[in-house]
């Protein structure tokens, strides 16, 4: 529960910073949010049954602060998987945004929104996957006395590295395309 409260504090600070920089509605993209939720939940359900999914989430939000070893292990695995799936959804959104960007090159008025999808997808994935679900996984393990026993799986760091590489490549590609379209 502490992790969720910390996440909400991070969201509040982030929203305040975004509001200082301009209109908040510029940071909202419903298709990126839908992709993040859909891929995260569906991808998690490929590994966990509905019962395990519901139990893991329910136990995390229960009023009991401590978790048994099995409950903590399930919650840690569940939220780590959700973190990985959210990161994957961010990568998918970035690639879809890049494809949209390439489709609208003839209309400069549509380039900004396409770039926004690219970057907002990753922004949402970092906020939800890294800062929320990653913290919740660690919190579950801590509440069950399992901290330090379970390390992040190798695939988790690979997904994060792939997202960083993709964003760098996409951003560079977009700059090159924009420069080539200048009069």
* Low-pLDDT stretches: none
Let me know the largest β-sheet.
none
**Distance N terminus to C terminus?**
54 Å
Query: Which structural class fits the helix and strand makeup?
Result: mainly alpha
Number of separate helices: 6
Percentage of residues in DSSP E strands: under 5%
Mean pLDDT: 81
Helix content: over 70%
Shape, please?
Answer: elongated
Along the chain, the helix and strand elements come as HHHHHH
Oligomeric state of shown chains: single chain
Count of strand segments: 0
Number of domains: 1
Query: If you compute it from the alpha carbons, what radius of gyration comes out, rounded to the nearest whole angstrom?
Result: 18 Å
What does this protein structure show overall?
With 183 residues, the chain is mainly alpha-helical. The chain has one domain. 78% of the residues lie in helices and 0% in strands. It is built from six helices and no strands. Helix 4 packs antiparallel against helix 5 and helix 4 packs parallel to helix 6. The protein is elongated, with a radius of gyration of 18 Å. 33% of the residues are buried. The mean pLDDT is 81.
């Amino acid at each position: 529960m502490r992790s969720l409260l910390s996440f909400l504090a991070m969201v509040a600070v982030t929203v305040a910073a975004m509001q200082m920089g301009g209109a908040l509605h510029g940071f909202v993209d419903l298709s990126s949010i839908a992709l993040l939720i859909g891929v995260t939940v569906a991808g998690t359900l490929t590994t966990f049954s509905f019962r395990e999914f519901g139990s893991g989430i329910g136990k995390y939000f229960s009023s009991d602060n401590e978790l048994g070893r099995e409950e903590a292990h399930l919650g840690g695995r569940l939220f780590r998987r959700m973190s990985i799936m959210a990161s994957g959804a961010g990568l998918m959104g970035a690639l879809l945004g890049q494809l949209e960007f390439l489709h609208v090159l003839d209309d400069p008025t549509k380039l900004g929104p396409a770039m926004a999808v690219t970057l907002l997808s990753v922004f949402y994935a970092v906020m939800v996957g890294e800062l929320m679900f990653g913290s919740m996984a660690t919190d579950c393990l801590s509440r069950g006395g399992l901290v330090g026993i379970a390390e992040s799986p190798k695939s988790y760091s690979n997904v994060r590295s792939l997202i960083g590489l993709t964003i760098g490549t996409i951003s560079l590609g977009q700059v090159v395309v924009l420069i080539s379209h200048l009069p």
